[in-house]
Design brief:
The protein is an alpha/beta fold. It has two domains: 140 residues, NAD(P)-binding Rossmann-like Domain (Rossmann fold, 3-Layer(aba) Sandwich), CATH 3.40.50; 163 residues, 2-Layer Sandwich (Dihydrodipicolinate Reductase, domain 2), CATH 3.30.360. It contains ten helices and 14 strands. The strands form two sheets. The protein has an eight-stranded mixed beta sheet. It has a six-stranded parallel beta sheet with strand order 3-2-1-4-5-6, with helices on both faces. Strand 12 and strand 13 form a beta hairpin. Helix 6 packs parallel to helix 8 and helix 8 packs across helix 10. The chain is globular and about 55 Å long.
Length: 324
């Protein structure tokens, strides 16, 4: 039996959910947690009968932790990832990878320099229906791609934005980089590299620095078009929508579940591959097989580049060319 790999989680808001994921994943062991709110840290630690910290630097000194899971505000991912890498720890960071491309690149470089793995937690990529779509596109089952669309219409209360959310420094943006980033990641994964973006963002319902509604028009390298819409101004949370079609068929999902699937002509069979069920399994495989995580730093950076392109386009009022 293989030895369990130790995990430490920093940030226990959404991180509490990830503690549960680690504890339920075979081969992973939750060793310690950290949060600046001591009562929260103590409560989670008691639940799993593990140690807790309020200073993540102290947790990094433990030899029985091989992976650090960063679940803090987005603008803190870089600092914590780089420090963990320097201590020889592999790192998983929640989405987005960071709030600037420069900081994301610094994270990627440092992890490579220290010989540790970096993974980004885009959990929608581990969903079987999304894997099925990706494989169908790779098999050209939909033919030549024509259009890819994503839409997220959610509600966020004024209270939601009383902390770090909706700030450029720690959130990096608003409804696009925080709420819609999963759909943007899937769109980029499905459709391939983006050459140009034209975007517009605005503030309509909240007193925040960043956008509560953002839109983007995309030109993909393969010649297809794309659209992105993400907002927190709606009256309720509705299932995120993704639609992809080519000249031989198309697919539509709601909340990561396929609702429409059509292919004209013969459908090439999909391969049954042993995809990880979540990012914890992804990291375990990467460490044990000494390979890159499926969603590594470079992959996590791609959706950030698209969002940054939309923000730049909105500021400058013109089309922005991307390098990915």
């Amino acid at each position: 039996m293989e030895k369990e790999i130790g995990f430490g989680v920093i940030g226990l808001g959404m991180g509490a959910n990830r503690c549960e994921m680690v504890s339920r994943t075979s081969g992973a062991k939750l060793v310690a947690v950290c949060d600046i709110n001591e009562e929260r840290a103590k409560e989670i630690a008691a639940r799993y009968r593990i140690d807790y910290y309020t200073d993540y630097h102290k947790m990094l000194s433990r030899d029985d932790i091989q992976v650090i899971y960063v679940m803090t505000p987005s603008g803190m991912h870089g600092e914590m990832t780089i420090e963990a890498a320097k201590r020889g720890k592999n790192v998983i960071t929640t989405k987005p990878i960071e709030v600037t491309l420069e900081k994301a690149d610094e994270m990627i470089r440092e992890c490579k320099a220290q010989g540790v793995k970096l993974a980004v937690d885009f959990q929608s990529r581990y969903v079987r229906d999304n894997i099925r779509i990706y494989q169908a596109i790779q098999n050209k089952n939909f033919g030549k791609l024509i259009l890819g669309e994503v839409r997220l219409k959610w509600y966020r209360s004024p209270e939601y934005y009383e902390g770090w959310h909706g700030t450029w420094k720690l959130d990096g943006g608003g409804s696009l980089i925080n709420q819609t980033i999963h759909q943007i990641d899937l769109l980029r994964w499905f459709m391939g590299p983006v050459e140009k973006v034209f975007g517009q963002i605005g503030i309509f319902s909240h007193k925040i620095e960043t956008e509560d509604l953002g839109m983007g028009l995309l030109n993909f390298k393969n010649g297809a078009f794309g659209t992105i819409l993400g907002t927190t101004t709606y009256f309720e949370d509705t299932p995120p929508l993704i639609e992809i079609h080519g000249d031989k068929g198309g697919v539509k999902t709601e909340g990561n579940k396929i609702k429409f699937w059509k292919i004209t002509g013969e459908e090439r069979p999909l391969e049954e591959e042993n995809f990880p069920h979540n990012v914890v399994e992804d990291m375990l495989q990467a460490i044990r097989e000494d390979k890159e995580p499926w969603i590594n730093g470079e992959e996590g950076r791609k959706s950030l580049e698209v969002v940054m392109g939309i923000y730049e386009s909105s500021r400058k009022g013109r089309i922005v060319k991307l390098l990915n």
